[in-house]
Amino acid sequence: MNKALLGKKEELNYTQLLNQKTTFWDKLPYDIDNTFAIHINNHKYGKINEAKIPAKADIYFAKGFVNYDFLQQNNFN
User: Fold this and answer.
1) Alpha-carbon span 43 to 49, nearest angstrom
2) What separation in angstroms does the CA of 64 have from each of 3, 8, 12, 22, 38?
3) Domain boundaries of the chain, sorted by first residue
4) Regions of the chain where pLDDT drops below 50
């Protein structure tokens, strides 16, 4: 398996673990109840390259409310 594909799998795993509210949150200064991880898998148009390029960060944190049942149905993604 190439490194890029392996990296994408790891990002997906970290997103799932964070949204399951595991002990990863112990090291992060965020409110565990209202913060969720979002894995970015779309590309964005870059003006300099004049082409679609990957996002600068692969996992973002967002604050808000997400129903736990919805997270479970979507495999915590």
Assistant:
1) 13
2) 33, 25, 20, 18, 12
3) 3-73
4) none
